[in-house]
Amino acid sequence: MKAALEKSTYRQLADDLQELIESKTLRVCDKMPSLRRLARDRGVSLTTVQSAYEVLESRGLIEARPRSGFFVCPRIKLEDRLPVMPQGRNRTAKVERPDFYEEVMSAINNPEIVPLGCAVPSDEVYPTKTLARLSNAALREHGSSAYRYTICPGRQELRHQIARRLMTAGATVTEDEVITTTGATEALVVALTAIAQPGDLVAVEMPTFFGILRIIETLKLKVVEIPVCPIQGMNLDFLDEVTGEHRIKACIVQPNFQNPTGSVMGKSDRERLATLAAEREFAIIEDDLYGELPFEGKRPTSMLAHDKDGRVIHCGGVSKILSPALRVGWLVSERYYSQLEAVKSVSFPASSTLSEMVVAAFFADGGLDRHLRRIRQIYQDKSMHMREAVFANFPEGTRVNAPTGGFVLWVQLPRQYDSEQLALDALNEGISVAPGTIFTASDSLRNCLRLNCGFGSDERIPKAIKRLGQLLATSSKKSFGPGR
Ligand SMILES: Cc1ncc(COP(=O)(O)O)c(C=O)c1O
Question: DSSP alpha helices (H): ranges in 220-323?
Fold first, then answer.
């Protein structure tokens, strides 16, 4: 509670100071009040003022000068610090396993490695006590039946809770349209298997979550990559052009806090995507794993809320909000329900009964909204601090996304830097990062990388960012660039 109060105080202070800068009460080159003085005048802690100044720095309004304090600076346009959208190539391609996939994944289970590579939350983010309480309660209530198979479509009380929860995403669905899965990965596998045959073409975002590319590779599908703008998401003009030329079976999209760019699609783009899907007859496979994680305000809508003729298959799960180890995910679709059910019940007939009981209870009355408020704040703080640390330590010209939810940063280094080399060098020093190349099926994004901000108060993180900066400074430079 104290942390929550503290946070709103520093944001308020940052907003007040921004107003003074915008009204030119504080002008470009003016020195900002010292931390101590402002803390005294405002009756707040030094940490509050420090955090407010960090916010203003991240908004490009003030800059720190060594041994002189903070100064109002000419406003750096946000766009000048954001990664640029990669160039698309309207080319179909097979997907081949990227070299770095295993390295990035294996770091998850090694506590010695600073985990900046995988998008995983740290242990402190999990609602461990509540999960333990709900597990015990489920075992007490259900006894040995908690150890029985749960057959497709999954436990009724969980499907009911998922349908209710989706109301907050603007969707009207019933529990009979929901199928539970073993994590969002299984939801994506089932959706793609039900919709496409080997050799079929699907559209994916570029960059996209590398797990999606792995699934596509395993199912022997072909892809066409649609560039993603780090603010607005998928480039729909490009998708329009591609689907005018090629017949695609599905478009896989993360409209909310896209992994890895953090982008959020606007309402008109969601409508346009739904219209394109209806006109060109392809399914929209929505991966909404981060939709519940806006830093502020209400969660954005699901594509289900914009669906024209039932073409949306919604995939969700609790891996980023409760715990990835529960392995609870879901699929929602009316139109494709029987196809999805057929695939699920043959390939993956059962789900984890105890996990489904616990998640259903958490959604029903485990304080989900309270828990989400807590972790959204952690993610916001960590993302903001890490973004500043990256600007402070990485080479000049580095661009970083400014996410409004989720917990990953997408970093674009100047063209001559090689993120695969960085990933190798960093791994030798016990730091894992995800190079840009694993987020695309094409040979590009080599000067990009993704950083995980899901970690709460791991004190190794600032040192790791500093070390990455040093490794970049001494690395041999080549020439790479987005969309190359
Ligand atoms: C966008 C996205 N989709 C799906 C997944 C897989 O989720 P799960 O762990 O529930 O299988 C992840 C995990 O990182 C992800 O980032």
Answer: 236-245, 267-280
